[in-house]
Amino acid sequence: MKPIETMYIWRESRVLVNDIYNMMNKCRDYSFRDQIQRAVISIMNNIAEGAESGTNAKYISFLNISKGSCAEVHSMLYLCEDFNYCTENERVSMQNKIKQISVGIARLIKYLSTNK
Prior knowledge:
With 116 residues, the protein is mainly alpha-helical.
């Protein structure tokens, strides 16, 4: 497997982590902030952990967790907009990044599933 730093989905998830942290920087709802931050970090870290897991089956399992975290962050971004932590445009922009990451993860899962 190639180094995670060369993987588009890992690099984009790192950008997304920074976007979420910057957006939530002044949020005083610490449990909400903690939840979205942990979820976005889960996207990036499960890609990395899976890459080093040793087997395609384990890697796919980690990637599925990462996809689940994508869905969680996607959902929570609606609440961020509702609670005025971001604008509609910011929400849409971040959700578009999440969609690209999620599609990339799905493609990697398909590749790993067919190349045992």
